[in-house]
Amino acid sequence: MYYLIKIVLSAALIMLISEIAKRSSFWGAVLASLPFISIIAFIFLYEETKDAKQVSNLSIDIFWLVIPSLALFIALPIFLKKGFNFYLSLGLAALVTIACYYLMTLGLKKFGIL
Questions:
Q1: Which of left, alpha, beta for 85 (phi over 0: left; psi -120 to 50: alpha)?
Q2: CA 22 to CA 9: how far, in whole Å?
């Protein structure tokens, strides 16, 4: 039952954001940019482990990995403006983002952060 609640809550959030974005891309973006998923993950992790240090570690790791995730939001409109279809643009933007994640993890390991 607990896992079902997690799934329904996550799905409802995604549906809400997409429905709002149909009416206003700005307000959809505002909601999507809020760290709802992170907050929900913090709550579930804490409730399941009662370990604030684990929550703290997750928060720090999310911080570092938000940086390379921003590549998606730069690459996607570039590919779309170049005339690529939506799914190709999304796939290419995802590949760019994966490459940025890889480079970030290499950098974090090099500096002893990860």
A1: beta
A2: 20
